[in-house]
Amino acid sequence: MGWYSYDEGRERQAELQRVIARKRASGEVFEALELPKAKGKLVRTFWAKAWCSHLESYQDYENRLPRGRSYLRRGGVYNLLIEDGLLTAQVAGSALYEVSVKIQPLAKEDWVQIQAGCAGQVSSLLDLLAGKLGEGVLKVVSNPESGLFPRPGEIRFSCSCPDWADMCKHVASVLYGVAVKFDSDPALFFRLRGVDPSELLAGGAQATLSGLSALEAGLPGEDLSALFGIELSEEVPAPSISSKEPGPGA
Ligand SMILES: [Zn+2]
Description:
The chain is α+β, with helices and mostly antiparallel strands and 250 residues long. The protein is built from eleven helices and four strands.
């Protein structure tokens, strides 16, 4: 990692923009992460804010995360992808860096515990995704030890920059960039943790699925997916049968 004068820095930025333009011209997808237009808060919704405050609550991270926030503001995060347990992105710094963050999917037994703790208290997927939750549910999902958010030991990151081992600003900017994505589509948070949010609904997955088909019958498909902010064309996972299995103590 070198030190650059203002002019050298500008030159490198311009060179980077040329590299990006060339990639785009050759047909490569290079999508900049869209940030909220208004100045002020980076994120506004429940899951996005909860994600940020959870990560900021760890001493290991609190010194390193803030620079990711300002880095993200400068608009250098591209092609941010959220999959089950994996984030990938390209971040423009003094070069174009490849960032990936692996987040251990929520353990099955933890998910079963969370489901039990929320049983009968979450009435709709819309409320769940909007974070309109009762105090009991909030306590369960945001418990730092047993809730929905990953602990530092479950997060592994890498970056192609020379400075990555110490959580570089590129990794930090991706961790905040993810929250920006959660703002527009909170279902992505559950996707990242590898769980189906409808399994938290009162009545369990079965009722949810039949509720969905009833809704589907009455609404045009595209409206429904907009309503839930999820991709309905994706295969709906089979209802969990875990509630019928005897618990570990049985
Ligand atoms: Zn880096």
